[in-house]
Specification:
The chain has 297 residues and is mostly helical. The protein has one domain (3-294): Orthogonal Bundle (Farnesyl Diphosphate Synthase). Helices cover 71% and strands 1% of the residues. The chain has 15 helices and two strands. It has helices spanning 3-23, 32-42, 49-60, 65-86, 103-106, 109-129, 136-150, 155-164, 172-182, 184-196, 203-230, 233-236, 242-245, 251-274, 283-294, and strands at residues 96-97, 100-101. It has a two-stranded antiparallel sheet. A hairpin with a 2-residue loop joins strand 1 (96-97) and strand 2 (100-101). Helix 2 (32-42) packs across helix 6 (109-129) and helix 11 packs parallel to helix 15 (283-294).
C-alpha cells in the first residue's frame, strides 16, 4: 500500500475517533452506566472501514469533511449497535470483540440491549439535526437510506436469515443474498451517505458507487470468512472459528478456502472496474477496496 494511503487512513481514523468522542454522550451524564457502556462499545476499536468509505466517497463528491463526519458517525453507530446485539447470548453468544470483553460481559445483558437501542436512536438523531446537504429533500433521502439499510430489508433482515440458516447448507445465491443484507447494506449506505454530503455526482454516478459498494461489501464478507478460518483469536480481536463451531454456512464451507479466495479476488476486480469512469478522483475508494480484500486482520 502506498505510504500516503497509510497516512490518509491513520489521519482519518484519529480524527474520526475524536468525532465519536464528541458526539457520544459523556459517561458522567445521567444515566451514567448506559452512557459509559455506549462509549465502551464504540470507542477505541475497529478499523473504521465504513467511515473511511464515507470519507472517500465524500471527497469524490466534493463534500466538506464537517458534513461527512456526521454521516460517517451515523453509520458507525448503527454498526456498533449491531455488534453489541450480535454478541449477546440470544444471538451469537460471544465474549470477545475488538480485543476486549463484549458489552454484555463487561456490563450486563440488559445494559447491552439498551446500548444497542440508544446507539441506533443517536444515529438518526445525528442525521436529522445536522445540515448534510443543501437540499432538504436529499437529506431526507439520506435518513431513509440508512433506515432501509439497517432494517428488515437490510442488516437486521440479513441477521434474521443468518440465524435461520444455522446447520443448513445454502446455495451461493442464497448466501450472497444473506450477506448483501447483513454486511453489504451498511457498507453501501456508508458510501452513498458520504457521496450525498456533496453535490458533484449525477444519479448515474451514484448508482455506480452503489454497485461498487455491493461488490466490495460481498468481498468484505468473503474475506471475513477466510480470516475466520486462517487467523487466530488474538489477530482477529474476536473469537476465531466461531462460524464453523456454530455450524453456520460460510463462503469457505461452500466453496473451500481456495474457492473463497478466488471469489474475493473476482469481486475485487469487478469493484475496481466499476470505478473506472471516475479516474484519479476515486483513488481512495480503490485503495480501500485493496485494503478490504488484501487485509490480514
Amino acid at each position: 500500500m502506498a505510504a500516503d494511503f497509510t497516512a490518509w487512513v491513520s489521519t482519518h481514523q484519529s480524527l474520526f475517533e475524536e468525532v465519536l468522542k464528541r458526539l457520544l454522550p459523556q459517561a458522567e451524564v445521567m444515566p451514567q452506566r448506559l452512557h459509559s457502556a455506549m462509549r465502551y462499545s464504540v470507542l477505541d476499536g475497529g478499523k473504521r472501514v465504513r467511515p473511511l468509505l464515507a470519507y472517500a466517497a465524500g471527497e469524490l463528491a466534493g463534500a466538506t469533511a464537517e458534513r461527512v463526519e456526521i454521516a460517517a458517525a451515523a453509520v458507525e453507530l448503527i454498526h456498533a449497535y449491531s455488534l453489541v446485539h450480535d454478541d449477546m447470548p440470544c444471538m451469537d453468544d460471544d465474549v470477545l470483540r475488538r480485543g476486549k470483553p463484549t458489552c454484555h460481559v463487561e456490563y450486563d445483558e440488559a445494559t447491552a440491549l439498551l446500548v444497542g437501542d440508544a446507539l441506533q436512536s443517536l444515529s438518526f438523531q445525528l442525521l436529522s439535526e445536522h445540515q448534510l446537504n443543501d437540499d432538504a429533500t436529499k437529506q431526507l433521502q439520506m435518513v431513509k437510506l440508512l433506515a432501509v439499510a439497517s432494517g428488515s430489508r437490510g442488516m437486521a433482515g440479513g441477521q434474521a436469515i443468518d440465524l435461520a440458516s444455522v446447520g443448513k447448507q445454502l446455495s451461493l445465491p442464497e448466501l450472497e443474498q444473506m450477506h448483501i443484507h447483513k454486511t453489504g447494506a451498511l457498507i453501501r449506505a456508508a458510501i452513498l451517505l458520504g457521496a450525498y454530503c456533496g453535490n458533484k455526482l449525477s444519479d448515474a454516478q451514484l448508482e455506480r458507487l452503489d454497485h461498487f459498494g455491493k461488490l466490495i461489501g460481498l468481498a468484505f464478507q468473503v474475506v471475513d470468512d477466510v480470516l475466520d478460518c486462517e487467523a487466530d483469536t488474538a489477530t482477529l480481536g474476536k473469537t476465531a472459528g466461531k462460524d464453523a463451531d456454530n455450524d453456520k454456512p460460510t463462503y469457505v464451507s461452500l466453496l473451500g478456502l481456495a474457492g473463497a479466495k478466488e471469489m474475493a479476488q473476482r469481486l475485487h476486480h469487478e469493484a475496481l472496474e466499476t470505478l473506472g469512469e471516475f479516474g484519479e478522483a476515486a483513488l481512495r475508494l480503490r485503495e480501500l477496496a485493496d485494503f478490504i480484500v488484501l487485509r490480514k486482520f
